[in-house]
Amino acid sequence: MKVKASIKADPAKGDIIVRRRGRIYVINKKDPNRKQRQKGPARRK
Fold this sequence. Notes:
By secondary structure, this protein is mostly beta strands. It has strands at 15-20, 23-28, 36-38.
């Protein structure tokens, strides 16, 4: 999946881009409130 321009990850502030379950997340251990998510394909049940 391509990363949308709307998802901004700043490595200087500790952001990490992670792929989980077909979605792209931006997580940050230093500042846990800095979170972002890009919707991926819908999951089947």
